[in-house]
Design brief:
By secondary structure, this protein is mainly beta. Helix content is 0%, strand content 59%.
Length: 230
Amino acid sequence: MMIVDPYRFAGSSPVGCAYQGFTDDTAGGVGTTRTVPGCPIGTAIVGRHVFAWLFWSNTAATATLLSATIGGVAAVIHVQKVFASIGTNAGFALISAPLAVGTTATFVLNYSDVAYPRIHTYRVTDLISNTAFASQSNGGSSSTQSLNASCNTQAGGVVFFAMNAGWAPLTVTLTGSSQDFMSAYGPSSNLISGGFFLTAVAETPRAFNSTLTGAVVGAPNHANLVASFR
């Protein structure tokens, strides 16, 4: 039996990607399963994938994302990071699912402990595989003000990059990707930011950086996640 590499025998259309906005979990309560309706996912089209950066916090324990659905479709958890932060425990993850219909979707997120997510969504088209080509997770508790990351990419693909830092009210500068959002989130106002880059040519690797700006004292709790797709 011949095994075909889907990345090698790709169509000529490069991946398209557009940021759609964010939605907060406002339901309250102490459930570990969080249902967040009305998340924007863009214009419906056959072959669309919905990608999302999830950010959450928990003051009592470190909550890990166990599973997720987007619009009733099981999502892939591509990469995630949880770490102790200032006055809370922080986590973030990149997930995706194929979803051809609708302009909004309900996210159902199952955590190991109580978590209150913020969801940043992307509409992705012409994706060959929703299996990450490469990914990296780095940083965490007692990290550095400037944190590098790297990720191999394929020509015609997309790479997502995000950071999470327990050090507000700072700002952050991202390099290597767009910066589609930057805000404080959670009970301790963790700083979150992220974006993407469409890869016209392959890079081995592509370099990324998130640098906190402001009156940083000591070693901040600062982490990066990055993942590429074709």
